[in-house]
## 1
Amino acid sequence: MSMLTERMKTWRHVFKLDPNRSLSESALEKVCTAGTDAVIVGGTDGITYENSRELIQRITEYPVQCVQEISVESAVVPGADGYLIPVVLNSSSHRWVVEAQHQAIRKYGDWIPWQDVAALGYVVLHRESKVARLTESRTEMESADLTAYARLAEFLFRMPALYVEYSGMYGEERMVRAARQGLEKSRLFYGGGISREEQAQVMSRAADTVVVGNLVYQDLEAALQSVRWVKETETNGASQDD
Ligand code: 1GP
């Protein structure tokens, strides 16, 4: 399999599943066979090794890439197709920028399969979201800040992707577009509150990769449709590929 950073360049639509929420086998089968490009396993609270392993094992039964997003080092499950490491660029706590990552690498550094690991530079924008509270993110910002975070992620930190995160809320297109302006090659992820076709289209035009999470648990049929909503929309101003 190619490096995760290369594989990510082909992701247009991804589902994010939460190990702390339950999903029936038939729902999981539909999610994994709906034509999405990858399933990311991750969440903010109640994440354990046991619930992460259980969900990852179930997903790996299906022919879809299964990638774990690591928020707690003790929950890392060997055998996933890749590992995404969040770096919360607008966190006011050092912990979510380098400290948690440093501790994990100090412990497990000799065994990390780096070709299957990629950093996601997050900018968390929904003030009331669990992730914003947990990471003490500074969510108040102007569009120029987003452009600057995007440049910082790509040109200073050399991150493969910037993630505009509105978890639980549909975000502002102008903010996603401001992030776009700062990027040349790094990929732009958007996630947050997608529940209708028009919303998916707007964000698919602005971003490279659209993440659908909650909708899987709220309205499975709509979530399955979201694959088509995203994939039938062309992005404009996409990051340049090599
Ligand atoms: C969450 O960005 C993802 O990390 C998706 O957001 O759950 O609101 O779809 P939703």
## 2
Amino acid sequence: MQVASQIPGVKHVIAVSSAKGGVGKSTVAMNLAVTLSLQGLKVGLMDADVYGPSVPKMLGAQEPPVSHDGEMVEPASAHGVKAMSMGFLVDDDTPMVWRGPMVLSALKQMLFQTNWAPLDVLVLDMPPGTGDSQLSIAQQVSLAGAVVVSTPQDIALLDARKGVTMFNKVNVPIMGFVENMSHFICPHCGGESHIFDHGGARKAAEEMGVPFLTEIPLDINLRQFSDEGKPVVIHAPDSKEAEAFKVLGQKVQDFLQEQEAQNDQPIKIVIE
Ligand code: ADP
């Protein structure tokens, strides 16, 4: 069996995952990374979603990564976050035709041939789904935990449950569920609508015995800011969305601190 490796100089690697595309996984990964950086951590963001790399655009990174020796790559950087993505290396209009082994080798290079160190946390924006690519990432790199992003409606949550099962299989702890597009506040009348239902992820988390982390509203500003490469947590720090990301950042930090404390526990020698 393959043993997952540590990345030198990187304390924790966490995965932000979703069982299907379009639920806001990359939005959550990017804003979580920037939030953790604003909260004082040294943070990296790796776009493992090689089929639809969106990190460069969302993060608004201007300068692409560079390599001085043809071996190791200096990651890009924006808003204090180091970033790496296939999206930096190919232009938006070039379709990428990947075969399984190519995906794995691209992911390995981004993980292990990028000068990430020193980092407190590397956030992985996982490919959507619960298949081979996700499993091979979990086998390559030692993951401290996974955040599962879902929209609230039943059909999305069915898939999100599969995500939990997959991480359980590879012994990656689930940090918890994030409910994205949780509710919509009308910018005109202030009324709240539940376009994709509401509260489903909290309920599913309770049923599965995993923590519920935060709920992020469906908001046009968040979409516009993301498309313009402006993290909402920086450009609208007092918004409901930014508040939701602060809560998420704090919970992720608490989780990682707890893990560190457990790892630091002295080994007890029991003499019988
Ligand atoms: P995924 O990574 O799951 O495919 P993305 O993060 O790329 O999803 O989000 C898909 C689209 O939905 C993007 O245009 C993004 O700006 C938008 N989006 C994500 N979350 C929200 C939200 N809470 N409110 C409004 N738009 C959102």
## 3
Amino acid sequence: MSLQENRPHKDLIVSVAVPVPLRQTFDFLVPKSLLDPPMSDSPGGEVNVAARTRVKVSFANRTLIGVIVEVKTESDFPLSRLKPIVELFRDPPLFDDALWNSLLWLSRYYLAPIGEVLESALPVSLRKGNELTPSSERVWRLSEHGRSSAVDELNRAPLQLAIVRRFMKQSTLSSKEFKQESGNWHSPVKSLVDKGWLEEFTQEPILLGSDICEKSSVTLTNEQSVATEALTDLMNAEEFSCSLLHGVTGSGKTEVYFDIIGKTLAKGKTVLVLVPEIGLTPQLLERIQRRFEQPMTVLHSGLNDTERHTAWWHASQGHAKIVLGTRSAVFTQIPKLGLIVVDEEHDGSFKQQDSVRYQARDLAVYRAKQANVPIVLGSATPSMETYANAKAGRYLHLRLTKRASDVALPKIELFDLNTQPVIDGLCPAMTEAVEHTLSTGKQVMLFLNRRGYAPVHYCGECKQAAKCHRCDSNLTVHQRANRLRCHHCGYEGRLLNDCRSCHTKDSMLEVGDGTQRVESALATRFPEARVQRIDRDNTQRKGALTAVLEKARNSEVDIILGTQLITKGHDFPNVGMVGILECDHGLYSTDYRATETLFQQVLQVSGRAGRRQDVGRVYIQSRFPEHPFFDYIKQHDFDGFADNLLAERKSVGFPPFGYFALLRAESTHQAKALQFLRRAKSDCGQQDGVIVMDAVPAPMERKAGRFRAQLLFMSSQRSSLNAMLSNWLHYIATDKEAKKAASSVRWNLDIDPLDHY
Ligand code: ADP
Ligand code: ZN
């Protein structure tokens, strides 16, 4: 293996990826003093420095923890100029070949600094330099050598001697027990390990897992059987394959995942399951735990550093057979990986929108290819990228067209807002439908993707809206708190009585409907009904979302009113009708992805209706009921919609037929961001097949007091686009003037951007 090099005689050099925004690695010298004593497990006591392990270095006057990318004996720099590393972490390599190659690819493809990529791939606790094994898990015992040696050999090391004596009374000691009894145990224990007196081992991990292994109680439908058979064949082929499991809401995709997960586990392999941020519910966890007897571990953003470290460690040690997690779980080292599943693959939360801007679904596909294992992408409303890949035959297209429970898909009807008024969010026909549904004992679910009370606070005299003084946006009224809030920068202030523009007294009106306003109107109109609002404002506390979803699921509420938080794969068995209160602005948005997202949201939320017994009803309020969009919606015709959209995108060379990159810049000076981008455009020059648009202000130009601008790159070839941008990045890293310009603004580069703001 080329990972480890044993060259005791020559100077050892390591190239290190340091967590800084620079697109290169840095060479350091490994001082001889650090190689002594040699790593205890190194054969023949030789020096052992391994790539893909952590190292402490001093960089620009800071001590940083980086990852060794390569061990070598020569450098492009004279040895005298190389700084020595500060500390070697004697970890085994942290990434296997497949994951390592995927991370290198990610850095190249997204043009992200390798140091930052590797930093995101490790739990915070390891980035801070903590031991690889989480401290709660570390246990030591005397080794064979320790047991057979005479203790007086340690007479000159009283702390070590005391520790060895303790082991004579108690055969194993954990870090927890050491901490309780003595302060200074860490370094003597380490010395004893290095000398071979003690050995560290791990106790059986305590993981989520269950011994109630529930056999599937369902008989697979025909469509499910066809899908599972196809996936079984792919799994038996023991090579890379990518399948789209395209099944309408309620078609039982989960049963299909479970079947193939079970078969993979039976072969002694591990499974990685990725889900969207809000798709990771206790419900899903419980379902998996009950189904598989195997230990599993869960990684999501709600974990603290220690929990995350422990979860990562269980995965990387192979203790966990199922690794379930959100976006960044795709970075987890997993031995014997046999299958990757990405549920709700179209979900926007798989795209990281800051620091390293990557698409976890795409990385998962690349990783599966590297690991030579099958990957299954599942959705009722696939992304255009995935759907196009399936249509083109690059992915196997598995379809579930019918609901598993024999209940037909809901009937979708439109209410024309040109012929009836909207009062507090609902038109009379919608109110009537709610009334009717409640009278049959069913739940009502209302979807309104706008939180707060009223989205506009404006003056009845001069018609000016209250604006955020730091953003180009209106302030939203939040009535509970009696505050005005900016949803873009978080600004909060008192409600106004008097207009700030024309100074008229008591002229301010609250206009438009947010979830809070509709909630209070519903309470007045349906006094008997229990109304539950679900939006970001009342679910931020840890566990709060889970609690309200659970209430809704258990029919402890009658009307569920929520934002897109309710559209995701949650199963509400008793929902009889879904009302969509607003969707028009998605039809005429400047964002080319808006209709795709709207279609996904409307079909997903509609899918919550009538999942058991009776056919559900869906009602949509719109001023544009004749819009062709609604013909597809009414027919549940995803293919028709997608084919049409893809044809449009193809004709203009938009993704997935062309490739976009967005260079964003922001500055407190209005002109600076634009100037930087204009300069970038000219520095990029010309490249065949790449079109560079003009630098323009962002759709919301001012946010949190900063002026934002953007430069869009379009290309029919990924490689040309990548080449142009990496040349430019190299240029601004090396040319003095360009470097200066680039450091005068905040900027970031987004490859395959999801939103254009
Ligand atoms: P999806 O994720 O495709 O929307 P789910 O996997 O949540 O759908 O399944 C929807 C419902 O159908 C669940 O309650 C599930 O238990 C049930 N179900 C799945 N497969 C079958 C089957 N073969 N027979 C009966 N019920 C099934
Ligand atoms: Zn603001």
